[in-house]
Description:
- The chain is of the alpha+beta class.
- It has 4 helices and 4 strands; from the N terminus they run βαββαβαα.
- Helix 1 packs antiparallel against helix 2 (69-81).
Amino acid sequence: MALYEHVYLVRQDLTAQQVEAMTEGFKTLLAQHGGKVARVEYWGVKSLAYRINKNRKAHFSLLHIDAPPAAVKEMERQMGISEDVLRLLTIRVDAHEEAPSAMMRKREDSDREDRGDRGERRGGGGGRFDRERGDRPPRRPREDAGAEGAH
């Protein structure tokens, strides 16, 4: 069987439980056609880059699928029929990643309260305007601006 990563977006006015129920339905559909879902990641409600069917936000879900191509095609067909599914993308992969996806790692990073790795940010200086330029001599003081600008 082939391995796939499948991401789909669902309208924001559905609850997380309804999205989970949809995912279970798709898992059942794949199982009926000889496939299985290795892992499910629910990424939550996120803002969209542009409106899709008048929706500004959507529920995002990732499925790691191990199924024959016909089963995936049938699942995509069922999602296309559903009015709740805004977008879907299926990609065939050689192997599933064991680690959490980039979206889940991003969420874990933003959830951390320890921000010690950023360094001092407030009033600490260190900006590009605070350093001395070693490659040129210091500026000479400005003289009367009217005398030079009158030429």
